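Q: what sequence does this backbone want?
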């Protein structure tokens, strides 16, 4: 980690408690991210359409509730909201091992659990992004975001291989039980934060629709945040065509074991850790706008490595693995950098009273396209195969850096 990230961890005891809460829950989430689809594939034996249904269920809360959740969370204190979300996630995930033990587990329940947990995670993440600037101060926000993203990346390094190993050793349902416990631990750390939170600014007659429009208007009128939003939408849509089938493709088509899958994903976590850790250092030495455009382009190259690896199946297993690892390195390092810079940029340009709403807008654009993209990709994959669907997605993704390039993003030099 860079010195600025170590300083971020040392900001205050309360920030360290927040980091501990996030680290524990992120590690558990990484376990569940692998365990849910692996349970669907290995225990229930589902196909592409069922896998797309699982991804759709996880993305629907963002599509249905993101903007309303953002406006609501701007009315209330954020830390209590995060604690409630943690406790609720614990209870919902607990139903999976219980149902598995009783022999009742099915794809319908997995989809319902994915839907509810995703909705609670949506509320938690929106509240977290809005809560952070008040806890550390806006001058320190870049280092704090880098520390948070580095923590998430570290969980990405440890979580997937551990998740794959646990699924092989104790099964998906019990692995999901460990994820449930992580949210309980996270809530305990959040309860120990002592710094008082500033009360929200609430109008005498709150109007939810007007508040949502307010949040949208702030991004729309910003000549940098608006094109980044468009580019992000393109990226989100076409990556969402690939993401739901990543586990199915590697385990079903390329015949990798769950442990091998976890180890490959872990290399991406290491790359994301490097990208996030270097973000403050890179931001001081390279212009922000062009760097964000390059991050979009590098991500596209990374996605292309997945079907390229498929072409090597039966030809060179070693080269196939190299391309899968390269996809993780390119995609996750660029994402780690992009997330830190884009979030810090937004948190500096948007008033504190609107951070939850604008964060919800970003979340909607980032995750909202998934139901439509996953459905479209599911039918294309059934008709023409997974490889054809992936190449189509890569061609569409290539427009994301183009949109960012032909805008004021190209001229942005500093946060």
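A:
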């Amino acid at each position: 980690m860079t010195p600025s990230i170590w300083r971020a961890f040392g900001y205050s005891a309360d920030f360290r408690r927040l980091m501990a809460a996030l680290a524990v829950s992120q590690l558990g989430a990484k376990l569940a991210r692998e365990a849910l689809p692996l349970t669907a594939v290995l225990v229930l034996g589902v196909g592409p359409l069922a896998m797309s249904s699982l991804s759709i269920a996880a993305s629907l809360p963002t599509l249905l509730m993101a903007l309303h959740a953002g406006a609501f969370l701007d009315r209330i204190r954020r830390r209590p909201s995060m604690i409630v979300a943690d406790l609720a996630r614990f209870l919902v995930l607990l139903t999976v091992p219980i149902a598995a033990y009783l022999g009742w587990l099915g794809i319908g329940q997995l989809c319902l659990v994915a839907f509810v947990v995703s909705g609670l995670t949506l509320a938690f993440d929106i509240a977290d992004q809005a809560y952070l600037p008040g806890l550390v101060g806006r001058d320190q926000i870049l280092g704090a975001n880098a520390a948070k993203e580095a923590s998430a990346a570290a969980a990405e390094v440890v979580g997937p291989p551990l998740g794959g190993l646990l699924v092989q050793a104790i099964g998906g349902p019990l692995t999901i039980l460990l994820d449930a416990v992580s949210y309980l631990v996270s809530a305990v750390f959040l309860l120990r934060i002592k710094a008082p939170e500033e009360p929200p600014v609430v109008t005498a007659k709150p109007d939810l629709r007007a508040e949502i429009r307010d949040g949208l208007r702030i991004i729309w009128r910003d000549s940098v945040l608006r094109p980044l939003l468009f580019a992000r939408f393109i990226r989100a849509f076409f990556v969402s065509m690939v993401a739901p089938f990543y586990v199915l493709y590697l385990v079903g088509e390329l015949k990798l074991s769950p442990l091998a899958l976890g180890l490959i994903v872990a290399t991406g976590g290491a790359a994301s850790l490097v990208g996030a850790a270097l973000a403050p250092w890179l931001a001081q030495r390279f212009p922000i706008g062009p760097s964000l455009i390059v991050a979009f382009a590098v991500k596209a190259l990374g996605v292309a490595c997945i079907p390229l690896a498929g072409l090597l199946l039966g030809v060179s297993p070693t080269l196939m693995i190299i391309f899968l690892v390269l996809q993780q390195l390119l995609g996750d390092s660029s994402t780690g950098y992009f997330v830190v810079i884009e979030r810090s940029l937004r948190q500096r340009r948007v008033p504190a009273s609107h951070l939850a709403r604008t964060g919800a807008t970003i979340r909607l654009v980032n995750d909202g396209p998934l139901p439509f993209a996953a459905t479209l990709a599911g039918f294309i994959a059934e008709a023409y195969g997974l490889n054809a669907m992936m190449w189509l997605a890569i061609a569409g993704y290539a427009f994301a850096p183009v949109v960012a390039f032909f805008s004021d993003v190209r001229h942005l030099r500093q946060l």
